[in-house]
Amino acid sequence: MNKKIGNIFKGDKVIWMVFFFLCMISIVEVFSASSGLTYKSHNYVGPIAYHTGTIIVGVVVAIITLNIPCRYFKLMTPFLMLLTGLLLIIVMFGGGKSTNDASRWISILGFTVQPSEIAKGTIVLVVAQILSAMQRENGADRQAFKWILWITVPTCLLIGFENLSTAAMLFGVVILMMFIGQVPKRQLLKLAGALCLCAILVVGMVMLVGHDKSKEETAQTTMVEQTDQPKKKSKLEKILHRADTWKSRIMKFGKDDVSPQEYDLDKDAQVAHANIAIVSSGVVGKGPGQSVERDFLAQAFSDFIYAIIIEELGIVGAAFVVFLYIILLYRCARIASRCENNFPAFLAMGLGLLLVVQATFNMMVAVGLAPVTGQPLPLISKGGTSTIINCIYIGTILSVSRSAKMKKEKEFESKRV
């Protein structure tokens, strides 16, 4: 029996344990945080049944993925690049579904897919290939840097118009991969300087083009009452229609602390109730399913689920979740160190960084250390295709660990003979 189970759950056992714990935490906390959905739909089983089913499908997909030899991932790269580029262009030019003032989703065969989720894994796959193909005795060839930027920058720009935080996070992961891949430090320093300049220009453009949403809504309401015609946006405003949201998030994060009596719960509801959830948690929390702030947080089951975890499981539970992601990254590093070839090593590290960096962003937002970005907590937040894609990442890492283990066992047997 144990042998049959072992044949199914192959690969690094520690990563399987981390994956299992994250899935269990996800089911419990999403069930608790989805009270708003159950109240609106009058269906108390439907949301959690759907999420549990998604996780089960994700586990099956991870098992299928881990049985794919690493060399086949290289063959998928051209097809994934074409698919990613096509989907991102469709979304950019108005072919995507709009939710919360952002057109990030596209419907394919009845399934809603976020192209940026596919793009993240594709870019990591491409960068891993470039770094492995252009490795020299003293590190990566100087041309590797140029090739990586030629592919990464256009993709991040396409993502950035609708999802700036995802584009920034993905580019950060690429930089970390280049650092691990021993790209010349002078090139990385030049890139860092260019990024600082670009960040200043982007923030300046956002502050210039963006509008104060509360004032803008009041002005538009008055205009509609007087003329019954909505205000037309300029071409620049249409291109940067997310500038209002970005400006609002920057200004809210950068403003000085205010007293509880002066705090506006209508404008800053998410941040305020996340803070209340954290402050009221204690060391061990209120207990699973006992959250109060889940009823006031609009994205309690997604963007701010870490705040609900802290409220229900306390500092101990929050630290345990952080520990799981640290272990995941550590095991990816161990797997990479056992790989004979560069490509699977870079691929495992890239995917591990992708999951952990996104988790770090989400947790920093929940505790108020970063502006609201809309990044879900990987493998915990409620999601459809995004959860399944994250499971594919885990399956790919397990595939790398499996091939590295097989090579190690063959070497041991050859030495023994």
Summed up:
The chain is mainly alpha-helical. 71% of the residues lie in helices and 4% in strands.
Model description:
The protein has helices at residues 2-8, 13-33, 35-41, 46-66, 70-95, 115-133, 142-160, 164-180, 185-209, 213-227, 235-239, 243-254, 269-279, 305-338, 342-366, 385-416; strands at 97-99, 102-108, 111-113, 135-136, 139-140. By secondary structure, the protein is mostly helical. The strands form two sheets. Strands 1-2-3 form a three-stranded antiparallel beta sheet. Strands 4-5 form a two-stranded antiparallel sheet. Helix 6 (115-133) packs antiparallel against helix 7 (142-160) and helix 8 crosses helix 15 (342-366). The two termini are 30 Å apart.
Q: How many distinct helices?
A: 16
Query: How many beta-strand segments?
Result: 5
Report strand order across the widest sheet: 1-2-3
Helix content: over 70%
What value does the average pLDDT take? 80
Sheet of most strands: 3 strands, antiparallel
Distance between the termini: 30 Å
Low-confidence stretches: 214-230
Strand content: under 5%
* Assembly state: single chain
**Order of secondary-structure elements:** HHHHHEEEHEEHHHHHHHHHH
Q: Decide which structural class fits the backbone.
A: mainly alpha
Specify Rg, calculated over alpha carbons: 23 Å
Global outline? globular
